[in-house]
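Note to self: the last two entries modelled the partners one at a time, which told us nothing about the interface. This time every component goes in together.
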Amino acid sequence: ADVKKIAVIAGDGIGPEVVAEAEKVLRKTEEVFGYSFETEHALFGGIAIDEKGTPLPEETLRVCKSADAVLLGAVGGPKWDNNSKELRPETGLLGIRKELGLFSNLRPAVVFDCLKEASTLKPEVLEGTDLMVVRELTGGIYFGDKLRRQGAHGEEAVDTCVYNVTEIERIARQAFEIAQGRRKKLASVDKANVLETSRLWRETVNRIAPEYPDVELEHVLVDNCAMQLLRRPSSFDVIVTENMFGDILSDEAAMLTGSIGMLASASLGEGSFGLYEPVHGSAPDIAGQGLANPIATILSLALMFRTTFGYSEAADAIESAIARVLDEGHRTADIAVDKSKALSTTQMGDLIVAAI
Amino acid sequence: ADVKKIAVIAGDGIGPEVVAEAEKVLRKTEEVFGYSFETEHALFGGIAIDEKGTPLPEETLRVCKSADAVLLGAVGGPKWDNNSKELRPETGLLGIRKELGLFSNLRPAVVFDCLKEASTLKPEVLEGTDLMVVRELTGGIYFGDKLRRQGAHGEEAVDTCVYNVTEIERIARQAFEIAQGRRKKLASVDKANVLETSRLWRETVNRIAPEYPDVELEHVLVDNCAMQLLRRPSSFDVIVTENMFGDILSDEAAMLTGSIGMLASASLGEGSFGLYEPVHGSAPDIAGQGLANPIATILSLALMFRTTFGYSEAADAIESAIARVLDEGHRTADIAVDKSKALSTTQMGDLIVAAI
Ligand SMILES: CC(C)[C@H](C(=O)O)[C@@H](O)C(=O)O
Ligand SMILES: CC(C)[C@H](C(=O)O)[C@@H](O)C(=O)O
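The predicted structure of the combined assembly is written out below.
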């Protein structure tokens, strides 16, 4: 049989707990659908700093590179926040993106029925919101040259934002293709009235747009996009933007759904390789107590099935199992109205496994 | 008597209409409070492109530099959107900021009672929201070197983000001082986990913080801030941040109040000099029809009185006149529930003048 190899990075905080539940789901799909998965665990983030002296050990990179996909829990925590740059979990995150060539970050922002009320937006504004932010992930100001120097006005710092047409084309094509599979609307976000990189961005998007005549393209300035997401979230389908803007807008979009604790994300490279992780963080305050909600991680696994492996049958099965469990009223503490009836992380995982 | 000189820039779209009402208010305060104002009009933005071939004519700069303050209506419109960079209104805006040394942009985001319902946020979330974004306005990626070049992967574009300690200290001190006059809470927003300029920003803010022991300081990452503004807007008092982040966050903050059409802003330089303008744009679609709401521009004048001239008595009088007129149920079309009863721009201006 075709054995798929998955690198599993549990990470920090609630990472190990939520990843454990996703692994149970993985095993269940082997039984039900006859797949074969080989998993290999690797250290990353804070725990790797503690155990190996670096957030991204060589061995972890090797494990990821030899895998077909990576499942990541969460990384970081206050313990490492004051470390020097090389010894911080974020540095590992930027490193793994670059080393694995994960140039595209997909952040679907959807509203879960049972969490509609959790949004701070009025329900009638949120109605119908289902958007996807496609964020460029290995270019721009994140990866350009950085320096400190003495200037005429004291110490100064410099960050450089660079984009070339190849990078822009690659992410734009992906966004157009994703839009073709959805509601066929693409908003390309830039700051072309100020930035040279944005002008190249816009020119490049416009140049390839005729190849996707079925997709309705609009250009939106980043400041305006931050407003329109609030004013008319349901009017967006796919949003494509550069790294820094994508960081800000994807988090804004996720928060406005009210469902941030349940959202999955994918970081993709060339071919079908991808790294999948929940949008939520490592939540160190509730770590190790069995309180974490494993659904976003399990949905990240479903996204992996669909996107990297083309196992859409299993992806559908996982997603509908989750929907069913939620419909039956089962909740972990973060989403429970009556906290006294809340399920533990493993109880929620078991119910989902049983529902597949 | 002490004659104050005000440069008046009507600009494009609804700019001339709303500025005319603010000028009527200006004259009324001369009568009531015995002030003397000398106003000089200047061309700027689209109209300056049309009449002088440049968005920021030398003459306009001269008028502004010889004034104590500048009142600006609005600039821009589709007519100039496809012009080359030097012939675009935005280029004038960036130029005037740099030439007049307007390093600080104050964007108060408050909720008007009569517009509470206009927000897409739930009223209980919005309750108590009253924040001020202090945006650095003459540094960062807006003004750093920009270039195009041929690289290994085709054409590439570069933007440079630069900050020195002097620039950061200046804006940070102003933000601390503003916080001292408000609820004494300051959120400094950066991306210190990725950007070198942000690390210098955070170090500098931390270094001067002990001089403002009465202000409670927190550091918030920009992506998190975009989320927290949505989740708990009322918990913010003053937010200070660099140019690009400030562009995005100040618009997000303005939009969430639901009152964006009524918000004023100030751009300040060294000393008491300042440029005051409404947050809303030039609204070319309704220009020349007497439909525009002049309140944001009149509030910008009140902000000028308070901030540049120290005329707080008159500023208070203007603000309470506006409150009274609104309380009595008077509305322009943009904020009217019953559009058939909406007042024109001049009717609203006249009512406010009469109420002072
Ligand atoms: C931790 C940080 C470096 C990272 C980013 O800015 O990309 C995070 O905010 C994210 O969005 O994954
Ligand atoms: C028009 C544009 C250059 C400007 C900016 O980005 O500063 C505008 O968005 C603003 O916020 O005043």
